[in-house]
Records
---
Amino acid sequence: MNYHWNWGIFGEQVKGGGETYLDWLITGLGWTLAVSLTAWVLALVIGIAVGALRTAPSRPIALLGTAWVELFRNVPLLVQMFLWFFVVPEFLPREWSLWVKQDMPAKEFVTAALCLGFFTSARVAEQVRAGVGSLPRGQRDAALALGFTLPQAYRHILLPQALRIVIPPLTSEFMNVFKNSSIAFAIGVMELTFQARQMQEDSEQGIETYLAVTLLYFICAFTANRGMAWIEARTRVPGLIARTS
Amino acid sequence: MGEFDFTVWGPSLPFIRDGLLFTLRLTLIAMTGGIVLGTLLALARLSPIAPLSWLAGAYVDTMRSIPLVMVILWFFLVIPFLTGTPVGAETSAIITFTAFEAAYFCEIMRSGIQSVPRGQVWAAQALGLTQAQAMIHVVLPQALRNMLPVLLTQTIVLFQDTSLVYAIGAKDLLKAADVVGKNYNRPVEMIVLSALIYFAICFSLSLAVRQLQKRVAIVR
């Protein structure tokens, strides 16, 4: 075991010159944040909608929601990345397909964010469904009896309660988004894992590189966790048994 | 619409079979090893010996907060330093997944053990079983049975996650599809094929788990 440690590596110029390794990692962090946050917003919007659909009284609509969840849950995320990146453009009309392949700006980023967003939406939908399911029946019945339409009952009565109940599981989903964004390296998004592999090959200081990148992932997940804990504390439903921390 | 030629699926089958066999082998080894190691870790986490419990906790929390791709890269980098000889991507993958899944199985087994009523342990002790005997013959079998659906669901997740050995180039199902796709210049058709295979296996397994869940629920 004779590893040559060099902690100064981050300040050194990359082999091609012009940038330091630190610049690479900062770029990587930027893309990781961009992919994760975009995907999270998408996942919340779609996930809440699909989760609500799954609890709808109409059977075909609930089935549609189930199909959505099963589709995204049963194919590995990496394969889904490849599907969105290589396969989906082939199924578009010819002009769109050409535009996507040749001219679309930040193609890798858009694909990765869409893919991760849809993937996570299926998991958010499951949590939202559980949240709506955990509410007493009377909530829905009372809302309908008061003259709310079904969409209004969801908008004003059911979802505001359900979402606040499922914040703890959503917190771990939010942390998962940062972890899962690492898979975007496979379609060429220059995020942290991509930079880690590139820097390891270029500098041959693998351990320092991976330690730094791992630390950055830790910080992302930790920040996400604290942020969600703050929201959880602010939005707690009064009168329910909940952890007070 | 592009031009597709799905006839490439025919000649690709031998390669796909070999890749799928590796994926299955990796899943089974990591599942077995992960459950055994995970149970030991769970016992350590629940142990009254503080340093042991702390160490197991630190291991599990660390593994669970790092992206799997980074864990795969870490092991691939570090194992040769520890053993002194370079190891292949396949061996590295097997070690990585066993160590990584152990952390997740540990948490499942821990909640399984904690779900067993305390009276069971007291009854076992009253009958003269030692602490170890009570754990092995009374608590663990019940914990395992209670957690069976969750353990299997985690195995489905593990099966999907094995596709990430792509990062170090191990020859699994996805890699096989990738290679055939490049050789025949039909990457799109091969990605679709691999997605269909993953979906078929995972979907039928999750249906089976749902059935099992119902049966376990009735027994209780």
---
Amino acid sequence: MSISLTQRIQPPAALRFNEVVGLDVAKQALLFLAVDPSLAGVALAAPVGAGKSTLARAFAALLPDDAPFVELPLNVTEDRLIGGLDLEATLARGERVVEAGLLARAHGGVLYIDGLNLLDPGVAAHIMDAMARGVVHVERDGISAVHPARFRLIGAFDPSDGPVAGSLLDRIGLIIPFAPQGDAAIRAEVVRRNLRPAGAAETDEANDDAMLRALIELAREQLPQVAIRDEQMEALARLALSLGVEGNRADVFAVKAALASAALAGRADVSDADLEVAARLVLLPRATRSPQPAQVEQQPQPAPNLAPNPDHPADDPSNTPADQKQTPEQIEELLMSAVEADLPADLSNLPFATQRRGRTGSRGVALNDRRGRFVRAVPGPLRGHKIALLPTLLAAAPWQALRATAGDRLPDAVNHPAPVVRITREDIRVKRFRDKAGALFIFVVDASGSMALNRMREAKGATVRLLQNAYVHRDQVSLIAFRGRAAQVLLPPSQSVDRAKRELDVLPTGGGTPLASALWLAWQTVRQARSRGVEQATLVLMTDGRANVALDSAHPDSGEAGPEPAGADKEQIVRQVQQLARRIACDRINAVVIDTQAGYLSRGEARALAGYLNGRYVYLPNAKAHQIAEAI
Amino acid sequence: MSRPAIANQPAVEPAFPFTAIVGQDEMKLCLLLNVIDPRIGGVLVMGHRGTGKSTTVRALAAVLPSITRVAGDPYNRAPEDIQEAPSTLPVNGRANGCAAGRPKTERIPVPVVDLPLGATEDRVCGTIDIEQALTRGVKAFEPGLLAQANRGFLYIDEVNLLDDHLVDVLLDVAASGWNVVEREGVSVRHPARFVLVGSGNPEEGDLRPQLLDRFGMHARITTITDAALRVEIVKRRRAFDADPFAFAAAWEKEQRALRNRITRAQKALAGVELPDEVLTRIAQVCMRLGIDGHRGELTLARAAAALAAFHHSPRVSWQDVVAVAPACLRHRLRRDPLETVDSDDRIERALQASAAEA
């Protein structure tokens, strides 16, 4: 009973690469990946039904000689992923036979993952490990083996399901962070192509495919001949710095993307257009900040660097015509002005800006014995656990011959015939589950101007204490701050107390109190977390409760939730807060309101808020941190 | 059956040469000092993604000097360790190589063993040889990764993502230096002394305090922000990707020079003098920082001595101490949630205060 996951992808009904409509940027990225596999992969943001998987399959068909196409199911277990003992073959042949895991099966081809942001952190870690080393190390079931696993990763994700873990995304060279715009003409074309009777127009597109394959082949041959100048590389590195790209991996990807672009165009040197597309596909999606501050920083000191360095062009004079002697700074400026327009006004739409430092650690989803998703079977006592029957039998199987000869028969061999399978306590495997249902604590901290008066320091201190507590209990934490026009997620659900602490340390105060916006964001965060299996959620609100900013167009999709956009009219604001609070209460989200206001100023807003939320109320100025912790 | 059989193991590509790694000097120094004196107790490397953590650790193997072991010993034991046989069981079908008389020896490179995420406990600790049990019904012990790592390095990438029960096993073995396996009526006890090297991204989860304590040094690394250095990184990476063998060959001279320097430092270490006033000041610094226990002082003294040996210096100077103090102490400071001062700044101040007093 073995299902082949390594299919040959040439079904007649499948769409070909060129037939997939829209996703043009994605196609370009995929062509780069076809030319240079060391770009590692393409990550593609796209909503359901955008044709991601069709495109990935069509891409695999472009690769030479029957490259495997392996689709990774999100619920894959570790042994299926990495490989393990093939017991059937082992017993049949009397020697260990190792069965390759999915990662090894994708060797030389495509590993396709739909739902990159829904991937279990443990599974993601294995994928990253394989990408880093090009091999899979199997150290399990008494097996020690190394399988080659160089694959091109195509990962798709729907941004509305939450962010992709930063560490995984960083290892994927080319990133398309925005879902393509819906376009009526394109939609119509999609339908038309898919409705096309089988067989019609086959030939044209088959020719297209053949042409593309030839183009890729040519570009692969061209690639080693393409030269990139030092100042071009430096410009990419500088752009990465200006955009606040973390780590040094992106530079390498950017240079490779530029080279692949040039190779596809049949050129031997890298043009500005190549650099631009590299910046767009590699650096821009990794931006964590807007470029202005960096440029200001650079103003005072570039004097010695601005003069063209006489040593630089000497490296490769053949490729450096006199009119192309640009300094890295000039090239960077050129690139910046070309791609800057694509930088979203709200950087938090970019994957690395919102979650500057990755999402969850595996501690956020601790393994446990009873709940969640079954990930692996481990030896252990049966008491209080669920037995993993198949792994237990598998564990016992190799020893049957040994045990039979050892004569460990039942004492009463007459009444009890020799057992068919001899299972000892050491064989027992119990199920370990990865529990995604840990608790989530969302700290919603008021950083408005009025808080400056109202003990911001204490509020921060209490929050940090609670964070430590959450760490001990392995809960996930998230941090939302609100001030000025709208609230902001400083830390999406994560396990890292350090990060939350750092975000708190640098949290500025001042401005209005957009409480409704904060409640809205908190509610959204819980809903997202619930879609990932987190059941229990608690809001911890640190505020004086004096809302004075209405929910506005900062949340364009807020209409669907009820509160309609409105001016800053006081009654409106109060109504919004009430509505949202009640909705949160209806969704069985626990809430604790920690009132930070000094007693003599209080008009009881925070207490009222706790009422709407159906939550607990704690008065901070009197409370010690540990008392607050107990309240939660 | 359509299972693709994996017959051919991949040709072993050389690792990126240690000496070709740009920047990240603290991490490199920490690793080297642990090679010179394994008693320092390992390195934890924490830092941003994409900064070359695992590349550097995996590069270490190629610059390590060799050790002498009993020929074919699966536990890498030196001839003088062999009196105490771990077990009388055959290992991998062979009689356990500890017959009477002088055992044969061989030189092997210091092992650097990778502990992959998702490794099962039986592979880490060792188990019964399944093949032999299956085919011949014979009980034989098959040593695991801990045996392979004896007298070498055990590397755990993404150490903060390691399964809790494996962490427990590691802590146990690291504390005692022995690995004990009881399975299927087999009882094996073998030495497992190794330098633990862990790496990870602090943003992806914290390390258990007990595990944090195990590491002698804690190297911090960050993104390199110098554009020229970054270009150099890209160039070397591309050259390596294009032809790993040629690239490794081009760096062989530097590699050999470093290897020789390490060997000399190892030999010189025993003769390095630690002046009393330096030792006193080390203790003062640890007291000033309120570090519990004596592991801080010990590690700092050993690391400073290893650094002196690395510089061919006959005695430990205060500069040696200052150079290694942050890496030896930063993970031992008590964590105060309200503390806003960076731990390195606190160490820096304590060092200055001790220097001023003297």
